[in-house]
Amino acid sequence: MDSEIISESEAYPGALPQGRNNPRVVPLGLYTEQLSGTAFTAPRNENRRTWLYRAQPSVSGTSNSFCACGGDGDTVSPSLPEFFGGADWSKDMKLDPNPMRWGATPLQPGGKRVNFIQGMHTLLGSGDATCKSGIGIYLYAFNTDMSGISSDDEDLHMYNSDGDFLIVPQQESLWIQTELGRLTVAPGEICVIPRGIVFTVNMLNFENEAEDEAFARGYMLEIFRGHFQLPELGPIGSNGLANSRDFLHPTAYYESKDSQANKSCIIVNKFGQQLFQRPNPHSPYNVVAWHGNYLPYKYNLERFCAVNSVTYDHPDPSIYTVLTAKGDENGTALADFVIFPPRVMATDPNTFRPPWFHRNVMTEFMGLIYGKYDAKRGKNGSGGFVPGGASLHSIMTPHGPDAASYDANVKNPCDEPTKFEGGLAFMFESSAMCKLSQYALNCEQRERDYASCWDGLERAFPTKFE
Prior knowledge:
The protein is mostly beta strands and 466 residues long. The chain is built from three helices and 27 strands. It is globular.
């Protein structure tokens, strides 16, 4: 997480050049390639780049031109959508300031096998990826792999020209292969795949259900500008929240068997929210060694060191920020990733412990990885905010605890510390005003009566005083 710290890894001894980046004769007959995640002239504390030493450079195979997915020229993988997440941002997105809530994202109907790309749904977004401005928020539900299905199938590999992905698994662990190595990411962990890095997403295993019923589900945030970084700690000091030592990057890995290294595949490029594809004569996973600071990484949310009030009042949720991406205004993020982890609440007996009623200059999108959220328990302990579901409170849209949660917590004397360990919720917060996709507005799991959860908040202030 510190751009001045350069990591390095080699999957074969002696593959990494010593003392220089680009020797005339590269060890082991490899090719040198630099992957730049920022402009060459970006400040040192923001500069991101990695040197790759690979069996064949990325340009090998590009004589096979990209063609648009979903179009007449799409003869390689006609089942891929034309637009990532199924939404054409030029006509399928609509402003709607109403509070929204959705149940858990289901698989696409019809019993079809869908992979990570096919099972992606655009929910909301803002800006324009071609101008490197704004964000996208997505939900995914898939039940088959992008690669490794059989020796006869062409594997799918993807890279994103538009921005960085932050992936939050909710159901089933992911096995993610990238050019720089492999990652396993379980529910309760997150991973970030920066712009331009080729990757493949598969299910690691079937943890909870029979193989024919299992599917992976989760959330994804995309930023079209900049990169995620740790928030400044200010008066908290030098430690706390997410510590840089707990972020893990992969080690170098390459396909060593000829059957895999030389296997033809499909390269998919997300470019201006559209999907393009081309055949490639060999695997892109041929990086034998690398060094740099532009890397995919993962983080276990259990490692988060929460800070909270031990006297009175409920602090702002910014104290739970894991990662942030800078916005145009000082102190205002393009996007924050915030969690509400298990924690001890030790405020005085006159503190209302759930979040307060609120209107915000930021867009707040929330998801639930497991358990319950203390401000949205629903009526009689049922319904409410469910794992795999989501809620949206747009800029200046009123929101807060539902009537049942409010009444229960007003009656709670809060006269001793309690440990909240009933769930793990998170928030994607953004300064951007977002539009919603047709999928978000019309899907079956949308709770159209969501705002009725506040109907029970009756007036208690008297109309007359004696």
